[in-house]
Amino acid sequence: MKKLSSALLALALIPASQSLIAQDKHLTIGTNNWAENIAVANMWKILLEEEYGYDIELSNVSKNALYTAMAQGDIDISMEIWLPITDQPFLEPYEDDLAVHDAWYHGTGLGLVVPSYVDIDTIPELTERADAFEYQGRPAILGIDSGSAIAGLTDDAIEHYELPLSQVNSSEAAMMAAFDSAYVNEEFIVVTLWSPHWAFAEYDLKYLEDPQGIYGEDETIYWFSRGDFASDDPWLTEVLNGWHMDDDSLGGLMAVIEELGDPVEGARQWIDNHRDMVDEWLAVEVEAH
Question: Where in the cell is it found (predicted)?
C-alpha cells in the first residue's frame, strides 16, 4: 500500500469535530465594561484566534445596543447574561431572535462585604458597631459611583435597616485602594461589592447577611447568541456550553488582569498557568447530523 502523502495524513488526523467549526471564522463578540466580561471576552479571543484561527472582533457597547445589534445579526455572541432577574428586561423584547445557552457561572453575589476578620455577620449588626467602621471621620459604607445599581441598593439598605452610616461614593479603584489599606492593617471596613470580582481571589472576604433581601437573590451567568449561531458553529457552541468557572478561577483571571493592567496580557498569562482547565473546555467532540 502506498504511503499517504503528508497532506492527506494531516487531514486524516483532524478530529471529526473540527470539521464542524464554522467555515467563516470571523466572529463579533459583544462586550461591556464589567471586569469579568472584559476578562472572559479577551480570554476567548486569545484562545480562538491563536489556537483555532478565528478572527475575533470585540465590540464594546451599551446593554441596549448589544441586544439590538445581536438580534439584527451584527453581533454573534456575548459571554454574559445574568438571569433570571437582572438582564431579563433587556432580553425580553428579543427572546424570539436570541438564544440563551448554558450557564458558565453559578451564584452571583451583590451586597455589603467585609474582611473575614470582622466579627459581625449581618447588615443589622452594623447599627450597634457603626463607630468601628469610621472612614474620614464618620461611620461609612464605601461604594462605587453614585449612578450605579449597587449604589442605589445601598441607599435602600441604609434606609430600610436604619443604619447610622452614610455611603461614600467614588470610583471602584478608589474604593478598593481604601479597602486594601484597611485590610493590610486589619482595620474594620465595609464596602459594596459583587461577585464575580477579582477581590474575592485576593482577599478573605464575606458578605453580610441581608435578611430583608434588599440586594436580591443569587443569579446565574449564561452566554448567549444570535438565534442561528448554534447551527452556524456547532463546535464552538459545544465548547462554550462546556465552559465553567468559579470564584477561584474567574477571580484569579481578573486578579492577574488587574495586576498587569492589561486584559490581553493578563488573560494570556492566566491561560498559560491554567492549561489543564482550558484544555478540558476545548476537548469536545461534536457529532455531525
Answer: Cell membrane
CA distance 79 to 37: 7
Phi then psi for residue 59, to 5 deg, are -115, 105
Domain co-membership, 190 together with 116: yes
Bridge partners, 82 (sequence order) = 221
Cis bond before residue 84 (omega within 30° of 0): yes
Domain shared by 228 and 103, yes or no: yes
Tell me the C-alpha distance between 74 and 147, whole Å: 29
Residues 82 and 115 in one domain: no
Residue 213 lies in a domain: no
Residues 81-90: contacts with CB under 8 Å, at least 24 apart: 81/221, 81/222, 81/223, 81/224, 82/108, 82/219, 82/220, 82/221, 83/219, 83/220, 83/222, 84/219, 84/220, 85/216, 85/217, 85/219, 86/219, 87/63, 90/63, 90/64, 90/66
DSSP state of 122: B
Residue 217's φ and ψ, nearest 5 degrees, are -95, 165
Q: Which three cell numbers stand for residue 263?
A: 486584559
160-210 pLDDT tens trace: 999 999 999 998 889 999 999 999 999 999 999 988 888 888 899 999 999
CA distance 55 to 27: 6
The β-bridge relationship of strands 109-115 and 26-31 is unpaired
Q: Which domain holds residue 175?
A: 109-207
pLDDT in tens, 120-153: 999 999 999 999 999 999 999 999 988 777 888 8
CATH number of the domain to which 132 belongs = 3.40.190.100
What's the distance, CA 280 to chain centroid? 20
- Tally of structural domains, the chain: 2
Query: What is the rounded CA–CA span in Å between residue 112 and residue 141?
Result: 8
Using alpha carbons only, what angle is made at residue 235 by residues 269 and 79, rounded to the nearest 5 degrees?
55
Whether 120 and 195 map to the same domain: the answer is yes
